[in-house]
Specification:
The chain is an alpha+beta fold and about 750 residues long. Helix 2 crosses helix 7, helix 12 packs across helix 21 and helix 16 packs across helix 17. The N and C termini lie close together (about 10 Å). The C terminus is likely disordered.
């Protein structure tokens, strides 16, 4: 009776709840939105990996010498020897303040090294190390000198790690504004169509806005204790808006249904919380638990996305269980005011039990083996491309082709094929000058290395930078890191060798994900099983839901490999395929999609369980459950697809992939899984759907997340049997139960 009592409480304290909500929103707008100035870049590396430790060793031993910025200069009408070109570039580099730029490596600083000049002499580049011990400090240094790097009369392109992430941050801000302007009008229109009432349609958007602002506030709190990646903003907006609208849609729809059944406003609120409210809580907890798996990984990016997602889910559930019932209590029957002219007289949800969804359920349940076989085969075929997955990292190619840092990266690869904007740095310790020379020669002979040069020395330590052809994320370049780490026997005795750089970080990232992935998967499966058992009192339903989720996930991942890695969606979405998927994205997508896939399953199974408790007939319960939730789940899925689809318009490739992946997952779950696979497997299992060992069943009856209502139940409506339906298939499973709302 917990959720029913919550409904009564929200009704009686509705004005106080709304006043507190208003105060919270004011704080969120005034302070919570300040999170945008407190977020950090990057976070894709493992902080305890060899590459990270080696980078910290370089900074502490030699000072910061990394190439944070790569500037490409080009003049089609001149050469590097022309004072108007070369002289102007040299003067601009010499004038950079030492307080912001700690070192400059260029054609002039190396005494005219030919590797810094293109074959026709019309282009050159320089690498800069920026002052600062953190990403934020180096970004501040870059912004202070960015304009000084542009030489009048010369085509100047600023690229490298820091400018790339500056461009990514700017792109994220533009993407969020575009996503909101794109999705909100469509969402409002669809909600008006779904409810037929402007008053009811406004409620999910209000809950969505509260959820986003609340999640921003929670993230801002998190930034006071550690770094939070800027990319967390995307997941907050996506999940905060998408889930809040879904949850509010279910709650408002159930409230209107209870009003239409004749209940007074207070009882309607209480019954809504006991049914839809309880389901929202279980669903939100399941999604949050899945996202919690991201906290098991050491990468700040994944941890930040986990924190952002959990914050969004928590606020969506909190708003749906507090503010929304308080609003419904105040509005009462006025929830159907401002109705569309052609929808007048149609308030409330339909309670018909013989509609199109029920007929579809019976059609499926008359041929469960065939339907199960066809749907499983279809999902397996969609998932087949995932067997060809290849993983990569983040570089300038995630940006649009016209972004300046992307142009700089492309020009560097085109004009200076033997150079690398991201060299592999080998750190040597415990070596003398002769040892450094011997090590440099050995490193130069590693397959794939185009040159090896000593870039820093200090006492018995040195840094040897390796250049290569291709992108830092290429498999061949990753192999260089592996080969260098296996060179110990060929290097001077006593030498300690560590490798860092972008490629080494990618190699360590993949290894770190591989180490933690089994634990994360086990955590998600075990906790999800426990939650679903507590919700439904069955051990079969959780196992079946997990298996169906794996099938749905495989299909989603297969489509992502086909669309992004293989580039089939390249022309439609306007990104550049790298032939890989960014290594953290499958992990992130697994956690998000697994939770979201359970979302509609929980809503459907909750209604089926409610009908099972009323009738004790598995077939009737499935048909009624699908009929009662069919229109609402379809509407919720469509609304979520709009939100997720708006992120597919992003200018950042892996944000596009998140949007497409979530949209595809929701479409699969709301169609193939919900309409066909669930009723077919429920029919095949029959009464075994609800089976649990006697000790577990007694535990669930005492501690399960279930509602026993103190309100009178609505009388059940007999569902006419479809032709050829076998009717009750539970072998005398009709049994007396105390009326329950589950």
């Amino acid at each position: 009776m917990l959720f029913e009592r919550l409904g009564h409480f929200m009704y009686r304290r509705r004005r106080a709840v709304l006043a507190l909500t208003g105060l919270f929103v004011a704080v969120a707008i005034g302070w919570g939105t300040g999170v945008f100035g407190s977020l950090s870049d990057g976070g894709f590396e493992d902080p305890k990996a060899e590459s990270t430790v080696a980078a910290e060793l370089v900074d502490s031993t030699f000072g910061h010498v990394a190439g944070d910025v790569v500037v490409v200069y080009q003049d089609a009408g001149a050469t590097i020897d022309d004072p108007a070109f070369g002289g102007a570039v040299e003067s601009a580099l010499d004038a950079l303040p030492a307080s912001k730029v700690t070192s400059v490596t260029s054609y002039w600083s190396t005494g005219g090294a030919p590797g810094f000049v293109s074959d026709d002499g019309s282009a050159t580049f320089a690498t800069l190390a920026l002052a600062g011990s953190t990403d934020a400090e180096r970004e501040e240094s870059y912004l202070a000198v960015a304009d000084s790097l542009v030489v009048p009369g010369v085509d100047s392109y600023r690229g490298g790690q820091v400018p790339t992430f500056v461009d990514i941050n700017s792109q994220i801000e533009d993407d969020l504004a575009r996503a909101e302007s794109f999705s909100f009008p469509i969402l409002l229109l669809l909600l008006v169509i779904v409810f037929g009432s402007l008053a009811a349609a406004s409620l999910p958007l209000a809950v969505g806005g509260i959820s986003i602002l609340g999640a921003f506030t929670l993230l801002n709190v998190a930034t006071q204790f550690g770094d939070v990646s800027v990319f967390a903003i995307n997941i907050v907006t996506l999940l905060g808006l998408g889930l809040a609208i879904d949850y509010a849609l279910f709650v408002v729809s159930r409230f209107r249904e209870e009003l239409a059944a004749g209940f007074e406003v207070e009882d309607a609120v209480a019954r809504t919380m006991a049914t839809a409210g309880r389901t929202v809580a279980i669903s939100g907890l399941t999604v949050a638990v899945s996202l919690g798996a991201l906290l098991l990984f050491p990468m700040n990016f994944l941890q930040s996305m986990g924190l952002g997602g959990i914050a969004a889910v928590v606020m969506a559930v909190a708003a749906a269980l507090t503010t929304l019932p308080a609003l419904l209590a105040v509005m009462g029957h006025r929830v159907d005011s401002l109705r569309l002219p052609w929808r007048r007289g149609r308030a409330g949800a339909s309670t018909s039990d013989d509609g199109a969804w029920a007929r579809l359920a019976h059609w499926v349940m008359r041929r469960p083996v065939i339907v199960t076989g066809v749907t499983v085969t279809l999902l397996a075929v969609l998932g087949a491309p995932f067997f060809q997955v290849a993983f990569g990292g983040v570089d300038a190619r995630v940006l649009p082709a016209d972004a300046e840092s992307r142009v700089a990266s492309d020009l560097l690869a085109e004009q200076f094929p033997s150079a690398s904007a991201a060299p592999i740095d080998v750190v040597l310790q415990g070596v003398d000058e002769a040892g450094v020379n011997a090590a440099t020669q050995a490193l130069a002979e590693v397959p794939g290395v185009t040159s090896a040069a000593v870039t820093a020395t200090e006492g018995d330590a040195a840094v040897v930078s390796l250049a290569y052809r291709g992108e830092s994320t290429d498999d061949s370049v990753q192999q260089i890191v592996t080969d260098v780490r296996a060179l110990d026997a060929e290097l001077p005795a006593g030498a300690e060798v560590t490798v860092t750089g972008e490629t080494a970080r990618l190699v360590d990232l993949l290894a770190g994900i591989g180490d933690r992935l089994p634990w994360a998967l086990g955590y998600i499966v075990v906790v999800t099983f426990v939650l679903l058992f507590l919700a439904f009192g069955s051990v079969i339903l959780p196992l079946k839901a997990i298996v169906m989720n794996v099938l749905s996930l495989s299909a989603t991942f297969g489509i992502l490999v086909w669309g992004f890695q293989q580039g089939k969606l390249e022309g439609l979405l306007g990104f550049t395929s790298t032939g890989t998927l960014e290594a953290t994205q499958p992990v992130l997508m697994f956690a998000m999609v697994f939770g979201l896939s359970m979302d509609y399953e929980v809503f459907l199974l909750s209604r089926i369980r409610e009908e099972w408790d009323r009738t004790g007939d598995n077939t009737v319960a499935v048909a009624r459950g699908l009929q009662r939730t069919g229109r609402i789940i379809t509407s919720a899925a469509l609304l979520f697809v709009v939100v997720a689809g708006s992120f597919a318009t992003s200018g950042i490739t892996f944000i596009q992939m998140i949007g497409v992946g979530l949209a595809v997952a929701v479409i699969i779950d709301a169609t193939i899984v919900r309409a066909f696979l669930v009723p077919a497997t429920m029919r095949l299992l029959g009464r075994w759907n609800w089976w649990a060992p006697a000790p577990m069943l007694r535990f669930w009856e005492r501690f399960g997340i279930r509602e026993v209502s103190e309100l009178p139940a609505r009388p059940p409506v007999e569902l006419p049997g479809a032709a050829g339906d076998e009717g009750p298939d539970d072998g005398g499973n009709q049994r007396d139960r105390e009326p329950a709302l589950v």
